[in-house]
DNA sequence: CAATGTCAAGTAATCGGTTTCTCACAATCT
DNA sequence: AGATTGTGAGAAACCGATTACTTGACATTG
């Protein structure tokens, strides 16, 4: 079943059928209705590859992410929200995993694979890994959208996340609860997004007049395993930490896990704050206080940026910047610092 | 840059270039090497849509899953493992989310969308939702693979999961720890996979001579929220339950959460067993004892089934069945039943 | 009433590959 | 030597759509 078959059944030319399918406005509505009926009765759907070949557009957008394994649902959420935006607008989505490595070869390959499929636009959401390929990036008139980084050139949009607001709320929250010695667990600082988060934290600490202690900033993987290891190391050397902020929720979950395993309690002995607000954050024990970086908003912003660019006739000179806010969500993993707290035998202070 | 350009640069015909790209064995190796160099130097990659159009094969396999949102990483893991298998074999992957609804319309639409893209084969891993579309399934010579269900017809493979083995190990484990009153949290029993898990549980209970009490089987959503709600209801009516088995890890996490919120402890007051063994299961508090259904093996089995079928010249009459085992993984969410246990004020019985 | 303009619908070139068919040339056989 | 077979490479048809260009019917104008 192809367009010729439809044309002959409806007794019109293939060009007319094509025009009807593509909603070209000059076709007679009566004729259009008749042909549409034929199309529907035949259960015909145009071959997307033929359309892509002939028109040069695939109605598909690419999405490059780091990876979704290892139990960190942030990227997962992002993908599904992005897919929803795409399909709502009649677009397909092609995901490519650049894999959790800093091998810029792999990311470049990922981008190449996506482009080979002739997608109309690409969102690059690897949260910092893309920095490595910015120089070798040839902007071939394909609309692109980056997060945090990205050159100010035509056809490239940029989502700039305001880490500061949410992190400031978190630090102020902890300080208001009496915490003074606050550790910060970061993932690999090669990732620009994690540098920005750490910098925001340090800035807030000094803003509030607390002493900044570099021994309290621990670099590990930004994963559950990493959070666990970081806490294990921290508790060995720094006995008087009463609160821990983490660069993402996965690390926070690992942190809680290790804190409990070390015989301490959250939040009675140590308060924990995450970052991202993944759905799981509501279901940890205890539910996690965290800084929300809305995955839904991020996906929507990115897709709409691409769509806007696709629909623009003339590209905008320096690209477009879209701001995205972050916000503290208070749950139960943070509490007033306990007075007579002592580490190796957290004295129970009743319910 | 297209195949004609390469042909003229290499001073051969386009047919020869095409043969070289597709590794047709009859071309002269010396010539091939020369042309390959030209291809490489030009940075040429064939247009996949043109190839698909001309050859009828897309080198892409479809994957239909329920959905990946809501924080259940099982499907997420599946997708990434599947993608790995595909790309290792030079295939692309097209994911379609049938969305968490029993609207068979949506699943059929999902399958249609995937087929419209002319994928070479499709894996349907919605864990029971696909039952609803089996009747309206036209097997158009596209290889398909199902999990648990699926007709025994040519070009359709089937992965049949042995739920019994793992669940029997789990029940025996609990009974050995002294548990007698074991609740079972199931998701919606419309899903065949969940019916099979429940049936296996009931069979094990009677096998071991325990009294089977239908009040102890609670049907809710198979999600963290569902697990939480199920436990809330259970603790209101059944005070003497000492262990809970869940139809998946997500529900188990929700269950633990509610148990703790109700002032009880896991595993001291109530033991909890999950199902799936998602990566997160190692990082709950406490780490979850669970029945492993290897996502990696499942993905590999499914992809290889499709690949085998694609490479077969003559289809096998009744399709092929591939077995997949399950296995108990013991962690810390299960423990000896406590003697003087009483619900509303779990008396601490020391470490 | 002839000339011109408008507009919907048709004809055919095109997108970038694959694959069938054909042919030139070399090797083998009688 | 001449006929037969085999082999590697080129010419051209084809996949299923889009779209620039063309046509022809009808309306408008001088």
H/E element string of chain A? HHHHEHEHEEEHEHEHEHEEHEE
What is the makeup of the main sheet of chain A? Answer: 6 strands, parallel
* Residues in helices of chain A, as a percent range: 40-55%
Largest interface: A-B, 44 and 44 residues
Strand content of chain A: 15-25%
What ranges of chain A have pLDDT less than 50 throughout 5 or more consecutive residues?
A: 341-351
**Strands side by side in the biggest sheet of chain A:** 2-1-3-4-5-11
Q: What is the arithmetic mean of pLDDT of chain A?
A: 89
Calculate Rg of chain A over CA atoms: 26 Å
Distance between the termini of chain A: 71 Å
* Estimated structural class of chain A: alpha/beta
Quaternary structure classification = homodimer
Shape of chain A: elongated
The counted number of beta strands of chain A is 12
Helix count, DSSP H or I runs of 4 or more residues of chain A: 11
Walk me through the structure.
- Chain A is α/β, with parallel strands linked by helices and 351 residues long.
- Helix content of chain A is 40%, strand content 17%.
- Chain A contains eleven helices and twelve strands.
- The first copy, chain A, has helices at 3-10, 14-21, 29-42, 48-55, 73-88, 104-116, 163-176, 192-207, 224-237, 249-261, 295-311; strands at 60-65, 92-97, 121-125, 144-147, 156-162, 182-186, 217-219, 243-246, 271-276, 289-292, 321-325, 327-329.
- In chain A, the strands form two sheets. Chain A has a six-stranded parallel β-sheet, sandwiched between helices. A six-stranded mixed β-sheet of chain A has the order 7-6-8-9-10-12, with helices on both faces.
- In chain A, helix 5 links the parallel strand 1 (60-65) and strand 2 (92-97).
- In chain A, helix 9 crosses helix 10 (249-261).
- Chain A is elongated and about 85 Å long.
- At the A-B interface, helix 4, helix 5, strand 2 and helix 10 of A face helix 4, helix 5, strand 2 and helix 10 of B.
- Chain B binds a DNA duplex (30 and 30 nucleotides) through helix 2 and helix 4.
